[in-house]
Amino acid sequence: LAKCEAVQGGTSFIESLPEVKNRSYNRELGKDRHNIELWLKFVAHQDEMFLSLEGGDNSKKTRAERLTSRQLFERKMSILDKAISLNYSCVRLKIERLKIGMHLWDEDKWNVELREVEFKHVNDPEMWQGVLDVLESDTRRFNFVAQVCD
Q: What's a GO biological-process term for it (predicted)?
């Protein structure tokens, strides 16, 4: 039954392995570099890659073999930088980059990046919606007492 599903359009076990999916994303992005949805899926897929590398018996892995969450964010940032270089006017990619940047950059760097996105896309409602969503979810900058008392 599993073979029939794989033949009829289902996903086989091998096709579902994170490394195989990673190669598939790379191949598809090589064909269609302007597919924003595919870039965003590829960035999201890095979480699955991270979990597969972290899975198993971590006690047997050397320190160099373990992937840290910082490395995960850096990998995602690298993918987004490449995607933005090929799709410079895409606001969605830049908003996703700001979300990842919250985990990598200090506050000053993040504010500079935010101002740059705001400046370049000031008339784009998608940018403003994305920025508001990012700010709303940023627990580092949100202070309930300051919001209520001001």
A: regulatory ncRNA-mediated heterochromatin formation
Summarised one tens digit per residue, pLDDT across range 83-123 is 999 999 999 999 999 999 999 999 999 999 999 999 999 99
| CA separation for the pair 61, 105 (Å, rounded) | 28
Q: With 50 as the cut, is the pLDDT of residue 3 above it?
A: no
User: Is residue 61 domain-resident?
Assistant: no
Residue 60 lies in a domain: no
Distance CA 77, CA 23 (A): 18
Domain hosting 21: range is 2-54+66-149
The answer as to whether 59 is a domain residue is no
3-state secondary structure the chain: CHHHHHHCCCCCCCCCCHHHHHHHHHHHHHHCCCCHHHHHHHHHHHHHHHHHHHCCCHHHCCHHHCCCHHHHHHHHHHHHHHHHHHCCCCHHHHHHHHHHHHHHCCHHHHHHHHHHHHHHCCCCHHHHHHHHHHHHHCCCCCCHHHHHHC
Q: Structure pTM?
A: 0.76
The token pair at 133 is 């969503």
Q: Can you give the CATH number for the domain in which 127 is found?
A: 1.25.40
